[in-house]
Amino acid sequence: MNEILSPVWDEHVRRLRLGIAPRDALSGRDVFDGLDLHLEDVPRPHPVRLSAIAAADDAIGLPRIRPNPSGRFAIAFGGPSTHRPRLVLRIVDPRRRYVPRRLSVPVPHLATVRAFERGHDIDPTRPLAGRACRPVLFPGADHGALPSATVLRGRVTWGAGGPPAPWVRVEARPTAGHGPVRWRGHGDDRGEFVLVIGALPLQLAKRPARTVDVEVVVRARPLPPSGTPVDSPADSREDPLWHLPIEPVGNLDPADGVSTGAAVPAGYTKIAVQTVRCWRGGVTRPPPFVLT
Q1: 164-191 confidence digits (pLDDT tens)
Q2: Structure pTM?
Q3: DSSP the chain
């Protein structure tokens, strides 16, 4: 039975379930080039190919959502996930310009979308069902040059001279005044992060000094003991992202704390605080942040 066209026509309607448009944390603009989006809603354990293990492939062969011509990603209704209230997404950048993210995103049911459509047909001022997710991605180790920016390139380890602490969260503020958090960053699997120090408070910006002191707070989630289950479609530590948490997006508002990357995931109980003197307009590489 046709919904839109008269019965003499053969009709096939595909409805959008979720549109995903990742954003750059620095510019706020959509990221169109080079990202891969994968669905983690697969039967477990998902097999990991030997070639993926050798290449440390963040996608591990998960179903890929290909971008449309606009560069955005679209998931339509249909398939086994149609009735699930959430979709688990994995956003990765093979070129390591952006730090990967794993997100559990709420999605509407088909009946809800149709009900909104009927209401919109009756009154065009009524909104349609929200179906857009705009997660923020933070710069990775290979993000590239940031001319004239004040950049802190940091590294985090478990213990002095120990192994890297993966997937850390970073917050920073000027030490003068200890005001609210002004700058954030996400760490990668190697314990490295890129923190861009943006606009300074007017009082600091007017100072002629070539440096600025920044209080940097690093948070990490402890590694579970060897042999414990991991939250991965592969149920295995062969998945390079097995320790990257799945963050539950509260709603599809672009200002949602998880979508913006401002909310610190649960379990990030290890903290290191360090005051770093940064070169204004240049790159600063401080000693490693040490977690115990």
Answers
A1: 999 999 999 998 766 889 999 999 999 9
A2: 0.91
A3: --SSS-TTS------EEEEE--EETTT--B--SS-EEEE--S-SSPP--HHHHHTT-TTTTPPEE-B-TTS-EEEES-STTTT-SEEEEEEE-TTSSB--EEEEEE---HHHHHHHHHHHHH-TTSPPPP-EE--EE-B-TT----TT-EEEEEEEEESTT--B--S-EEEEEETTT--S--EEEEB-TTSEEEEEE-PPPHHHHT---SEEEEEEEEEEPPPPPTTS--SSTTSSTTSTTTTSPEEE---S-TT-HHHHT-SPPTT--EEEEEEEEEETTSEE-PPPEEE-
